Amino acid sequence: MSHKGTFKKIGKSKKQMYGPRKIIVCGYPIAEQNSILSLIQGLKSDYIPAIFATECNLNSSLKDIMKLNDNYGLGEFSNMKRAIIMSGLTQQELQKFMTAYKSAGLPSQLWAGLTPISETWLLKTLLDELSAEAEAFKKLH
After folding, report:
1. Longest dimension (CA), the chain
2. Which of 40, 91, 98, 102 has its CA 20 to 30 A from that of 34?
3. Is the distance from CB of 124 to CB of 62 less than 8 angstroms?
């Protein structure tokens, strides 16, 4: 099943993007999970809960994962593809977070924003689609 995505340029709006205000973190070793929390806290905006998805969440929809408690999965090993799925942030916060991530020197990863369509997808499906889009993007550049 293919869910062709489209890349959209991130603006600088203060309007909140789709979904509940949360970040899903995938594929980070335990030693780097606190670095992600520090980056989130460094946004100096309203509190943004983080969920650390584990392999047991791969067959759950993003909508169901968004319902998990703050810091769910923190301190648990994950062997998934590295990805961050953002929901309910402003475009300004999203840009600031991505810039801070790059400045922190953390390894490259997949990025996504929750949409009305993607929230129905299984986490595994989204990660596979993001990986395929990243490979296609690399071939173009």
Report:
1. 39
2. 91
3. no
Query: Which residue type occupies 56?
Result: C
Mean pLDDT in residue range 26-40: 93
**Cα separations in angstroms, 64 against 59, 67, 104, 139:** 10, 5, 30, 34
Task: Characterize 42-58 residue by residue with b for buried, 16 or more Cβ atoms within 10 angstroms of its Cβ, and e for exposed.
Answer: ebeeeebbbbbbbbebb
Taking the whole predicted model, whether its pTM rises above 0.85 is answered as: yes
Which helix (H) or strand (E) segment is 88 a member of? none
Exposure of 115 in the CB half-sphere (CA atoms within 13 A):
12
The mean of the pLDDT values for the chain is: 89
Let me know if 64 is exposed, middle or buried by CB neighbors in 10 A (0-12, 13-18, 19+).
middle
Residue 105, sorted as left (phi over 0), alpha (psi -120 to 50) or beta, turns out to be left
Sheet holding 50-52, edge to edge: 50-52, 22-26, 83-87, 110-113
pLDDT tens profile 69-84:
999 999 999 999 999 9
Q: To which residue do tokens 């703050």 refer? A: 70
Residue whose structure tokens are 């593809």: 81
- Say whether 104 sits in a helix, a strand or coil: coil
Q: Can you tell me the distance from the alpha carbon of 105 to that of 125, in angstroms, rounded to the nearest whole number?
A: 27
